[in-house]
Amino acid sequence: MISEQQRQQALDAMEILDTPPDERVDRITRLAQELFDVPMVSVTLLDRDRQWRKSEIGLGGPEAPRDDAFCDVTIRQSGTLVIEDAAQDPIFAKNPFVVGDPNLRFYAGHPLQAPGGEQVGTLCVLDTRPRSMDARRRELLKDLALWVQVELARQQEIDHAALVQRALTPRTVPDITGYTIATGTQPAGDISGDFYDLYRTDDGLRFTLADVMGKGVGAGIIASGVRGALRTQADRELVSALSRVDDLLSEGLTDMNIFVTAFHAELSCQSGELKFVDAGHNLGFIIRSGGELERLDSSSLPMGMGLDADYVAAATVLAPGDMLLCCSDGVLDVLASGDLFTEIAKLLAELSPAEVVQEVLTRAVRMHAPDDATIIIIRRDA
Questions:
Q1: How many Å apart are CA 83 and CA 169, to the nearest integer?
Q2: By CB count within 10 A, which of 304, 343, 353, 355 is most buried?
Q3: Helix, strand, coil percentages for the chain (3-state, nearest 5)
Q4: What angle do CA 291, 342, 197 make, to 5 degrees?
Q5: Whole-number pLDDT of residue 306
Q6: Is the dihedral of CA 368, 164, 9, 118 positive or negative?
């Protein structure tokens, strides 16, 4: 039998207590209210001395004492607890939630379990008048509770994946004399299928911007794996590094139809020479000091397609006053005109690289952009 200590530890490990509202869970409580035609619904988690509601309708707030809670009784048994008329029930008739606010008469709750099976909360529907509940509606409440349970576990998985991804995102931008560097990414959801990476080399800077086909946790996991794999290839030439990662992806993902586009480059800071390999990305550019635009495109295929891609390195020079711009295709969604070159060039004429990056990411948030947006700007100062 699971002890209260084990149950509390399981609840704490879920890291849900005192988190903001979640629309996925709120949607279930709204549906439950409509299906059962009740004034009160709650997704309740039983903390040490309180009931904390991840979502609620009609109960007036996120917390209540745990003492005498109907939900506390629910988690101590298996299956659905139904009290059709609490005022006539020998156990609950004198309960403070019955004789006082909110004057409960009807209660039906089904336990919510942590991933290890510990009962940590309930989905419950409540009313101030007596009601009955047949077997079909009991089964419906159970199904909704299982749905809540899945969403809570999914959120925990997303939170953990997001934490891993944040840990892998560069915390600082390398400070290189004579260069201004600005970077940023804005996921469309909780997890980004884009990533960028920058780190110093003996001669300057190596950097990558990549985009995994798709969005969400799966794409984010693959993106983190690709970033880590490229980091382990840091001592290899650009072509060799991408080829090795392509081999790894092709071995594991070919049958899943998932591929990764990437711009992988190395900058010699003293000379300004830029060597790069474009793996099907085609969103790298140089804006020359005179305003001319140079596209850094390539005919190489994305990684992971299983077609033995033949990567080829190209080179150019970043002269004083020139700026390199590389972004993911999600940036195209946030530009008013859809013309990346014109609009970014206009922004760069008015704002610093860091301000341009912030403007792009702010637009992505404001517009609820449908795709992840990631951008790198490197300017060789005149």
A1: 51
A2: 304
A3: 35, 25, 35
A4: 85
A5: 66
A6: positive
pLDDT score, position 255: 53
CA atoms of 204 and 266, how far apart (whole Å) = 8
Query: Is-contact 43 56, C-beta < 8 A?
Result: yes
d(CA 133, CA 91): 19
Q: Name the residue ranges covered by the structural domains of the chain.
A: 4-163, 173-380
Closest-CA residue to 195 (of 262, 127, 271, 270): 262
Nearest to 205 by CA among 229, 184, 183: 183
Question: What is the model's pLDDT at position 342?
Answer: 77
Residues 78-132 have pLDDT tens digits of: 899 999 999 999 999 999 999 998 899 999 999 999 988 999 999 999 999 999 9
User: Is 173-380 assigned to CATH 1.25.40.10?
Assistant: no
Q: Which two tokens stand for residue 216?
A: 């969400």
Superfamily of domain 4-163: GAF domain (3.30.450.40)
